[in-house]
Amino acid sequence: MAVTSTRRAAILLGASICVAACATGRPVPRPPATQPPRVPLELLERVKAMRAEAKALLARQSELYWRNWVYGDAVDVAATYRGHQALFSPDAIGAVGRLLGLTDDPRERRALTLFRLYLIGEAVGRAVAPLSDQALTLEAEATFVTPAGIEQPYRELNQLLANEVSYGLRGQISEAAVSVVRKLNPILERKEAVASQALAGLGYPRPEQFAEALREVDPKRLSKLANDVLDGTQALYERSMNTAIHAELGIGLAGMRRADVPRFDRNPALDAWFPAAKLLPTLRATFAGLGIDVAKQANLRIDDAPLPKKDPRAVCFPIAVPGDVRLSVKPLGGVSDYESLFHEAGHAEQYAHVRDEPFELQLLGDGTVGEAFAFLFEGLIQNPRWLAEKVGLGGDRAAAFVRGAAVRKLYLLRRYAGKLLFNLAWSRGAADPRDLYRRTLSRAYGFPLSDADADRWLVDHDDFLASADYFRAWFLAAQIEAWLEKRFGPAWWDEKAAGDALIGLWQPGNAVGPEDLARELGDAGIRPEPLLALLRAALGG
User: HSE-up of 506 (CA within 13 Å, CB side)?
Assistant: First the structure.
């Protein structure tokens, strides 16, 4: 431990007191213990009121999103901010910072840190709201003309590519849609400039400083992790992707293009094994093995009604954690339907079991820990033992399905590694971000990006390093799975003790950060080896 000048002075003062006492034989009064700084009551009450206001605002916004998703109600989130402008002002953010500087309790310091970051993020969001709305509106309304002369909505591009059998037409469709990307880019560039200006006014002269604080990441360590993953999986990726692409698309990795990815991801062959009617029963049976009766959880509401305006994708809404957690699903059946519901159920169960107050430790902070639990349960859909037990899928069919899932996960892992490296390098001031995007993502994909693909560098950009959450969560999920298997066996989902252990991990919410959770599991921190071992086993590498 380094000895500061202040501590050195205290040591010398203690020595002089001891000398004086020895010389006179009289007790010498000890210096008073250092008192923690006194927190002004006015500041304490102000921040307490702000926290209550923010908690209520988040609940209101979640309720609106829920009603929009389930019932198709119109949503005007901008209206929810009316009357709350002061909550996100520099003065309010400064008040939280002052209280943070006067607080010694570690839990309270973490809660206040997350609250301050939330307020800053919301302040930036409000600053860029007109540009965000403009971009979303353009994207929602934009159309492009296909090679067949048919006008198609831009948002249906991936579906069109997934359904197109012709290699040549997929490329032409993708090229035609770039016209919309080129209209979006100037709006997104202005949005980036406004966000940077807003962050500078709030104490972050470089935007990446805020992103690093929000995501709790060390950029050098994150860059190393991403590079190590790309280098360490290169041979396995080339071999497994070549095999899979040739089998499904009739081409090799060298002939692959971004336009072919949606078609490659389309995997309907085994959908019959995942019927809509068994979706919720399979979920309930899986959690029952962990001792969790989903149907009797009073604080968890699952809406599976086939309402006409409901978005079919499963999604979790934490309205008021832990008392009001909602899960929406419109069962359609198929592999992706099961994966989506199990993923969102992982989120829902964590929220439903959180017991920590204040609310910042329940709802705020980066999403790595929550996504890790979501990926843990989504991953069951690719587990051979679970597939045999819960779905009845085994033998060669199951092995082929697991291989296909593993190669797609490896592709996604490398894509996110590339996105992270691009965003980190761009934040340091890359002279030509478009060329940087092309080179970095081409390395990750293993096939070159075209000029048109390179134009997507802004559309594919993440705000505040959001991709870091998913990238780290995949690794953390595998670490949690390895920990569960070691303690409770390979079929850990059938052990009530494993459910109790998971509840113990869920209860602190975001009071425990991703690196700390990894350490609780017995690891030195987040590391890729458990996930890479699973992928190599599935892919025979």
Answer: 23
